[in-house]
Design goal:
This protein is mainly α. The protein is built from 15 helices and no strands. The relative contact order is 0.07.
């Protein structure tokens, strides 16, 4: 690796930049391209240490301000690499709300998913795990809510409800009332399948023993007088 750069005269033995990097713009980009070839890496997989351990510390530090993203973007403009596709996102990149939203929208578009179907694993398998953990407390709901406010997504519409969300009685009631309003049914006619087909099956099972009656009773949408009616229609289920 060192021999190629030394032969080109682009660095000293200690990795200090030669004048050619300053005088010849393509010399910088060519150095990065040769590094990728030598390491047999995808440009998106380059890390700062790849430069450091291959006598290119001067290049990355002095000409790209320590930014691997700046280096690979200069060397491979045709790839249209995005900052979050790198192993290491530029320092402070996600402090910008605009950048966070761009990354989340890119993920949704790349996967071709409804934002409500995005999971923690989707973020982690696409190099956005750090974004999710540090900026959204590992909550896909928080991420898509910021990126798609116009969709007015509710926590219970996600594949995975935010951790601890259903522990709140207020949240449970809000979810049950939303279900009834969405379906436009008499609350007494809400079924187990209605809960399950609207991503509320886990809520019903964990907090109401699979009983629509108990869920609707807590929400104040039915009374004890409705229990017999719901039982007769097979909608009560395990209230004891």
């Amino acid at each position: 690796m060192y021999g190629w750069f030394a032969k080109k005269g682009w660095l000293t033995k200690r990795g200090k930049p030669r004048a050619q990097w300053a005088q010849n713009p393509d010399a910088k980009a060519e150095s990065v391209r040769q590094l990728v070839v030598a390491l047999k890496k995808d440009p998106r997989d380059l890390e700062f240490n790849d430069f450091h351990f291959n006598y290119l510390s001067g290049l990355i530090s002095n000409y790209y301000n320590g930014s691997v993203y700046a280096a690979v973007s200069d060397a491979f403009p045709e790839l249209n690499i995005l900052p979050w596709e790198l192993m290491q996102t530029p320092r402070g990149f996600y402090e910008s709300k605009e950048n966070r939203i761009a990354a989340v929208k890119w993920l949704v578009e790349k996967l071709g998913k409804d934002p409500r179907d995005i999971t923690v694993e989707d973020f982690h398998s696409n190099r956005l795990g750090g974004l999710l953990l540090r900026n959204y407390n590992d909550s896909p709901y928080a991420a898509v809510s910021e990126a798609f406010p116009e969709l007015n997504i509710h926590p219970w519409e996600m594949l995975s409800t935010p951790r601890g969300f259903n522990e709140s009685k207020e949240n449970r009631i809000a979810a049950v009332k939303w279900l009834v309003e969405k379906l436009g049914k008499d609350p007494r006619d809400i079924t187990v399948e209605d809960f399950r087909s609207n991503r509320l099956g886990g809520l019903l099972n964990a907090y109401y023993r699979d009983s629509p009656y108990l869920a609707l009773l807590e929400a104040g949408l039915v009374t004890q007088a409705d229990e017999a009616y719901m039982k007769s229609r097979g909608l009560k289920r395990a209230t004891a």
